[in-house]
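Data card: per-record layout.
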Amino acid sequence: MTMSAPLALVTGGKRRLGAEIAKTLAKAGYALALVSHVDKEPDADLRQILAEQNSDWQAFTCDLGDPENAAKLVGDVTAHFGRPIDLLVNNAAMFGQDDWHGMDMHTLESHFRLNLFTPLLLAKEVVQAARQNSQPAIVHILDQRITNPHRDQISYTLSKQALAASVRSMAASFGSAARVNGVAPGLVISTDDYDAVLEDRLAHMMPLGALPSPKAVAEAVLYLARAGDVTGQTLFVDGGAHLKSFDRDFMHL
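The structure for this 253-residue chain is written out next.
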């Protein structure tokens, strides 16, 4: 890798969807700052891609639940790589299970701190640290439910709706100083709450008749990273899920 390689900071970039995004960026020639809450190795398939691509990468451990850490993280990344960040992917998120009965100050504050405040402050720090006449790209990972919310995971949903609203506001605020866009996935990587029968039933409920792939989400991130004429936009990569209204979260259907 050379110093001319673009530098991407990916929060939650070591595992699951974050790892898929990191793999795609590595193949595209990005140097990578992979941020996680705890110090652990990246997923095995990501480690393999990083080795195959001879990627310039570094792991950073940071409590993103404390927005005050945003400035130090950006400073540490730029100091390590010796250059400003070209792409910020705000992927890390908290996904609680509260409904309106369980929603309280703690659930709201913890979700908004990690899912909204830290991404916005990271974006600010990245743009402030950018080279003169450069234009960093910022991509927020959202959720298809921002269009048709349901009654589950209310604190999470509210925080993602707020982050989605910030895409246009921050794009207008930054102007030519940075581009801000969002990617809103559907169900791309299931948890232990799902089995094959449920996933098949959900796939048939999607307008496209299939669940979206993690690779498709990562490719959307890469497109927005490179799309120099695009800002203030949100791409839904969800098999069309945002076109329908679901009464419950997918795991309860």
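Known properties of this structure: Residues 7-188+212-243 form a domain with the Rossmann fold fold (CATH 3.40.50.720). Strands lie at 7-11, 31-36, 57-61, 87-90, 137-141, 179-185, 234-237.

See the next section for split statistics.
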